Model the fold of this input.
Amino acid sequence: MTSTRIELLQRMPIFGAINDEALQFLLANAQARSLRRGEFLFREDDPASSMFVIESGRVAVFKSWQGREMLLRQLEAGDCVGEMALMDLYPRSASVRAVEDCSVIEIAAADLHRLYEHDVEQFALIQMNIGREVCRRLRAMDDLMFHTWMGDTPVATSAGDVFRST
Done:
């Protein structure tokens, strides 16, 4: 099971170029969780101290607004959610609920701190990768906001990239 999980992580941008030994070290302390369809992984404004790698199934990420749930995106196996918590330690910015039964791997900030003590170079690379991923998402949102302000009708893909209508 560990080799399958390592392969899953290595395909993700956040763990790109991280060596097997560092990933094994992280996974040794990581918690596996199962969610039934409809269960929350976490809710908007919950305290945050970990990220989650979706191992199987799908989840919906949404924000509450005026008593309604506004879907931001759906994520599936090989995606991660909650990684901002590992950098900013602010409360959750959105809610995540299972769309179908799922399994996730929880990687806590404390797990990353242990990696820092064990292998600072691999820790730094993960932090840089998280920063890159967050910046990529920010660019997509900036583009979406700009085109919305300009009266264009943007369409967001599941990957968060923005394509303008013609």
Observations:
- The longest helix spans residues 120-149.
